């Protein structure tokens, strides 16, 4: 099988040998799915004819996930495991794997088999054609109506207000050339929203349509609040529109109050029908303005909180243990 045209000496980690392809998989309480993931991913990797590695990140699982990963790594020297000291979240886990990946290309995929491993060979094909980013675009989702609607609304909102055109309906599932991986790895920002950074990085990008499966087992680890945080990360990191919303509100409200003032004045001076505006009007006005002000302060807080995160410069994750990274029989 022809090798990709990249002959750069060392893509990501100084001093280490490199492989052709790294598959990065964050896992959090996925003990029911792991055996099936192992079976399907191994099948795909064996068929690729490339020198591959799998980097699985145990993101603070409370079930038997770590033991299963350890056993998998024992059976297959291509599999390496990063064990986090606690749950740091999906994006942090992907980022940790990215930092340790040595592939000329890396594939980012979920560990719940929603991103079918069988798509990887098609991604590799595109990469060999010279594309540096191949992102998978879902044809349709197999999730509950509420989640589908929420996702659709979020991606469309993001597309409208973000200063980057983040492709619609593309999630994390993607292949990145090592040059792109190096760019993402070098990003200093906290609260990374990797699919946004991937767009930000540029390079030759292409999409690949695929059928997103339902979760193989278990249930989503993204509760509504986690999803909401991720959505906020996406919006706040790639758009200044929420900051500007207060201008618009301010303009409209002050315009309206000016008109109202003129109307009242005229009524008072020239009309016999002048009726003093009572409690209801006042209450509504105070509540409306109070609401608008709190909302904009909250929005501002989202940005300020993120600035605070940047200033603290805490790492995105803490690794407790590395399994299968060196030692006998390993690259
Ligand atoms: N995941 C993780 N840490 C978390 C939440 C999720 O590593 O805090 C992993 C999870 O095991 C899965 C992937 O990230 O492999 C995607 O999560 P999930 O399927 O729960 O999200 P959804 O597909 O429902 O958005
Ligand atoms: Mg999932």
What this model shows, in words?
The chain is about 50% helix and about 15% strand. α5 (about 145-160) packs parallel to α8 and α9 (about 240-270) packs antiparallel against α10. The protein has two domains: about 5-220 and about 315-325, Spore Coat Polysaccharide Biosynthesis Protein SpsA, Chain A (Alpha-Beta Complex); about 240-310, no CATH class. It is of the alpha/beta class and about 325 residues long. The longest helix has about 35 residues, at about 280-310. It has an eight-stranded mixed β-sheet, sandwiched between helices. Mean pLDDT is about 85; it is low at about 1-10 and about 325-330. The chain binds uridine-5'-diphosphate and magnesium ion. Uridine-5'-diphosphate binds near residues 26, 27, 87, 89 and 110.
Q: Could you provide a short overview of the structure?
A:
The chain contains 10 helices and 8 strands. The chain is an alpha/beta fold and 331 residues long. Mean pLDDT is 83; it is low at 1-11 and 327-331.
| Structural Rg | 25 Å
Q: How do the helices and strands follow one another from N- to C-terminus?
A: EHEHEHEHEHEHHEHHHE
Largest sheet: 8 strands, mixed
Look at the helices and sheets and give the structural class: alpha/beta
Strand order, sheet with most strands: 7-5-6-4-1-2-3-8
Chain-averaged pLDDT? 83
CATH level 1 name of the largest domain: Alpha Beta
The tally of domains stands at 2
CATH fold title of the largest domain: Spore Coat Polysaccharide Biosynthesis Protein SpsA, Chain A
- How many distinct beta strands? 8
Strand content: 15-25%
Low-confidence stretches: 1-11, 327-331
- What spatial form do the alpha-carbon principal axes imply? elongated
Supply the CATH superfamily name of the largest domain: Spore Coat Polysaccharide Biosynthesis Protein SpsA, Chain A
CATH architecture descriptor text of the largest domain: Alpha-Beta Complex
Helix count equals 10
Bound molecules: uridine-5'-diphosphate, magnesium ion
Helix share of residues? 40-55%
Terminal CA distance reads 21 Å
